[in-house]
Amino acid sequence: MTAREIFRMVLVLTIVTGVWGGLLSLVKMATEDQIQYQRIKNIKAPALLKALSVDYDNDPVKDRKTVVVGKDSKGKPIEKTIFLAKKNGEIQAVALESYGGGYEDDVGVMLSIIVDEDKLGGIAITTHSETPGVGTKAFESQEFMNQFSGQPLNKNFGPKGGQIDAVTGATYTANGVMTAVQKGVEIYKQIKSSIVQ
């Protein structure tokens, strides 16, 4: 093979891979929203529906917003997905996911906030690595989980000096849930003016 033939072969391969790479990028960009929607619908939506306690007529997963809630140590924006429950176009509740440290790892909590009353609508667990039958006693206790519903946002939900009773035998997990709720409420207070108009 001559140098000219090798050059042509490399050129053709470069063009072909460039074209296919570009096409794959276009397909990824075109389907990215739908993939994200399906991922949220299958993973987060069950907890979202459980946490929402208001009457709404929209799809909160479709009517979601991404808002900046701060910056990381490198100065990059930290984004949070906010789900909006609406009735006749009016926002009734805002839901978001927050995390608190459990016994094994972080506990993810979806919490909803009733906008015109400034109170918690409800909470539901999204993710956890807690020990079944031990740490999960906190999630399985309706008495514990129901303590959050209807509480005003100015209440202390945190484990230190908080006003929520933990679950005996699942203290770390319960503290993780309380911390997640407190963090979520703080995030909501910070972004409320930019999402509720």
Describe what this molecule looks like in 3D.
This protein has 197 residues and is α+β, with helices and mostly antiparallel strands. Helices cover 42% and strands 25% of the residues. It contains five helices and five strands, in the order ααβββββααα. It has helices spanning 3-43, 45-51, 137-140, 142-146, 171-195; strands at 64-71, 77-87, 90-101, 106-114, 119-127. It has a five-stranded antiparallel beta sheet with strand order 1-2-3-4-5. A hairpin with a 4-residue loop joins strand 4 (106-114) and strand 5. The chain is elongated.
Question: Outline of this structure?
Answer:
The protein is an alpha+beta fold and 197 residues long. The chain has five helices and five strands; from the N terminus they run ααβββββααα.
Largest sheet: 5 strands, antiparallel
Kindly, what is the distance between the CA atoms of the first and last residues, rounded to a whole number of angstroms?
70 Å
Helix content: 40-55%
The largest sheet has its strands arranged as: 1-2-3-4-5
How many helices? 5
Give the class from helix and strand content and strand pairing.
alpha+beta
Strand element count: 5
From the alpha-carbon coordinates, what is the Rg to the nearest angstrom? 23 Å
Helix-strand pattern: HHEEEEEHHH
- Mean residue pLDDT: 85
Overall outline: elongated
- Report strand %: 15-25%
Unreliable residue runs:
none
